[in-house]
């Protein structure tokens, strides 16, 4: 197939969505497909390696590109040979992805849209951008979400969208899997907790640090806990100050950026992984941790529910108070944590790399079946 991905954000920008689109494009290239990428990102840094990447003009407002300025580039890519499917990746603000999806739809090219972020936010921006900048016409596309939760949001917001597929993110679960028994037992002498994520407001790491202060007050004095927070971002100094103010210096360490290999090694020696975001559309870092055999603590109403069975592969809770109570109980019960680790290690993840690739190609087949072939019209 000739596949064109479109994503407003792409490497060298750093983030989960950027990694996903690049990984998917590389995997499809390895499968023998003709793959191109259209993105708004045009700046110095790694440029996608052997991928055919078409970058918009550097003119942007904050992180938002102006689609009309990239009209020629988009037309050149879409009109260069027969495109079998355009895979548009929608986040909260995706004017380039919306523009290309509309341009492809007008050409009769099947368009498959995957929503990577909490949908009600995406829908509000999508409607505004479509209505104000592109006119009132409705996109002729098929939709998917990266999780059951996101798919449900799409169905509620756009009840006329038809079937909504689930296309999980790509995680090489085999690469993360432990190759030997855990070298550490929970509570002997400490409990090792890890969190991986960009230090940004939407990841709710500050809220988790508040939860930790509640947990510390609930467990016996002298309970030894080591919480490693991996990641870089604009909130590093604020989080460090918060840790000091709450008297959590002996519990929490901000490790900064770490390579995937370093993160894997850390996970293989950890007891619990915490995913504190209440707006986790999928949970890439959480699936990596679960694949590494580490029980995951997160929220029931997020994408984690697709691959974490509460009580078996971790603990899914309803709110911050439940998280504080649940974590406090685990930190005084090393045997229960070890049972969770054993069951997590013994079960294959519910979502694997192969599952995600099969779902992606099935989604493309659906787009081509429901939306038909290419017409001769031009933008």
Automatic annotation (TrEMBL):
Residues 14-174 form the Glycosyltransferase subfamily 4-like N-terminal domain. The keyword Chloroplast does not apply. It comes from the Bacteria. One of its GO terms (molecular function) is hexosyltransferase activity. The keyword Transferase applies. Keywords: Glycosyltransferase, Transferase. GO terms for biological process: carbohydrate derivative biosynthetic process. Residues 183-346 form the Glycosyl transferase family domain. Gene3D superfamilies: Glycogen Phosphorylase B. PANTHER family: SULFOQUINOVOSYL TRANSFERASE SQD2. This is D-inositol 3-phosphate glycosyltransferase.
């Amino acid at each position: 197939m000739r596949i064109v991905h479109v994503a407003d954000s792409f490497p060298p920008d750093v983030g989960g969505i950027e990694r996903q689109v690049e990984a998917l494009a590389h995997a499809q290239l390895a499968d023998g497909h003709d793959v191109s990428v259209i993105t708004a990102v045009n700046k110095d840094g790694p440029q996608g390696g052997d991928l055919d990447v078409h970058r918009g003009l550097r003119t942007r407002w904050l992180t938002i590109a102006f689609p009309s300025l990239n009209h020629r580039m988009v037309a050149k890519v879409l009109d260069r040979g027969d495109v079998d499917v355009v895979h548009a990746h929608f986040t909260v603000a995706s004017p380039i992805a919306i523009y290309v999806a509309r341009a492809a739809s007008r050409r009769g090219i099947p368009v498959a849209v995957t929503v990577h972020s909490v949908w009600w936010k995406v829908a509000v921006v999508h409607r505004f951008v479509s209505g104000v900048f592109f006119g009132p016409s409705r996109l002729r596309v098929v939709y998917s979400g990266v999780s059951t939760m996101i798919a449900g949001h799409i169905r509620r917001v756009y009840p006329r969208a038809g079937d909504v597929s689930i296309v999980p993110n790509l995680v090489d679960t085999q690469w993360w899997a432990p190759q030997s028994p855990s070298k550490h037992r929970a509570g002997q002498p400490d409990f090792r907790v890890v969190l991986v994520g960009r230090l940004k407001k939407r990841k709710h790491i500050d809220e988790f640090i508040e939860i930790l202060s509640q947990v510390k007050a609930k467990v016996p004095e002298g309970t030894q806990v080591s919480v490693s927070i991996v990641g870089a971002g604009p909130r590093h100094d604020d989080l460090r100050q918060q840790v000091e103010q709450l008297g959590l210096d002996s519990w929490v360490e901000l490790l900064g950026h770490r390579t995937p290999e370093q993160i894997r090694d850390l996970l293989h020696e950890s007891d619990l992984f915490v995913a504190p975001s209440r707006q986790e559309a999928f949970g890439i870092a959480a699936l990596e941790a679960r694949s590494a055999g580490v029980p995951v603590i997160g929220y029931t109403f997020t994408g984690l529910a697709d691959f974490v069975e509460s009580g078996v592969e971790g603990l899914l809770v309803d709110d911050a108070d439940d998280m504080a109570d649940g974590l406090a109980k685990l930190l005084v019960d090393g045997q229960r944590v070890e049972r969770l680790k054993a069951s997590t290690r013994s079960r294959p993840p519910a979502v694997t790399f192969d599952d995600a690739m099969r779902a992606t190609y099935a989604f493309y087949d659906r787009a081509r079946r429901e939306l038909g072939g290419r017409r001769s019209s031009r933008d």
